[in-house]
C-alpha cells in the first residue's frame, strides 16, 4: 500500500511539474512573438489603449503578469478571453472540450476497431497478396497528411456525392467526415503495429510448444497470442492521442467545428494569450491523465509491469 501510494504521489508531482513547465514555456513564447492582442485597435485613442492594457493587466511587467496569471490558474480561473470579451476562457473551454473529446474519442475508437482486425488479418496472411495490399493501403494512410485528407473527404462525400455535410455541428452527420479524417492515419499505424507485434508473438517458443501439443490456431490466437501482441498497441495509445489532438486543429478548421483545436488556432492568430494558454493547459492535463490510464491498462494486460512498479 505504501509503495503504491509513493508511486502515485510521484506521478502526481511529475504531472504537475510537466504542466507547469508546459505553461511557462507557452507563456514565454507567446509574449516573445511579435504583435499584441490589440494591434487591430491602432486607430483607438491612447487612453482607450491604456484602458485595455490595464483591464487585461498588460501594463504590468512581464514577471508580474506571469505571477498573476499563475495565481489565477491555481484557483481554477483561466482568465478572460481577449478575442471573445463576453466570455471567460473557462466558458470557452467548457463549450469546446466536449466537442473535441467526442471527435477524438470516436476517431481513436474507430482506429482500434478497424486497425486491430486489419493487422490481425494481415499477420495471419503474412507474405500473401492480401497482406501486401493491406500494408500498401496502410502506408498510403500514413503518408497522406490530415490537411490533405480532410479537403479530399469534403470534395468527395460533400461536394461530389452530396452524402454528408461539408461542415458545421449539431447532428450525427456532421461527425462522420471529421472523425474519419482524424482516424485514417491512426487506423493505418494501428494495423501495421498490430501485424508486426502479432507476427513476433506467433513465433515465440511457448506458442510453438502449444501448437505442437495440438492446440488449434484459433485458440492459439485468441487465448494465448492476441493479448501479449496488443501490448505495443496499448503503449501506442498515448502518442495516438497526441496525434489526434494535433490533428484536430486542422480538422476543426476545415469542417468549422467549435472545438479546442479551432480555438487554439484562432487564439494564436489573434494573440489571445489567455485562450491559448488555457487550451494548452487543459489539453496537457488531458494527455497526462490519458498517459496514467494507459499505464494502468498496460499493467492490467502485462503483470510484469505491475510487479515492476510495485
TrEMBL record:
The chain crosses the membrane at residues 106-124, 136-163, 175-194, 229-255, 275-294. One of its GO terms (cellular component) is plasma membrane. CDD domains: TM_PBP2. It is found in: Cell membrane. Signal peptide: none annotated. Keywords: Cell membrane, Membrane, Transmembrane, Transmembrane helix, Transport. GO terms for biological process: transmembrane transport. Residues 167-181 form the Rhodanese domain. Its main location: membrane. Pfam families: BPD_transp_1. Residues 97-298 form the ABC transmembrane type-1 domain. It is a multi-pass membrane protein. InterPro entries: MetI-like, MetI-like_sf, Rhodanese-like_dom. Belongs to the binding-protein-dependent transport system permease family. This is ABC transporter permease subunit.
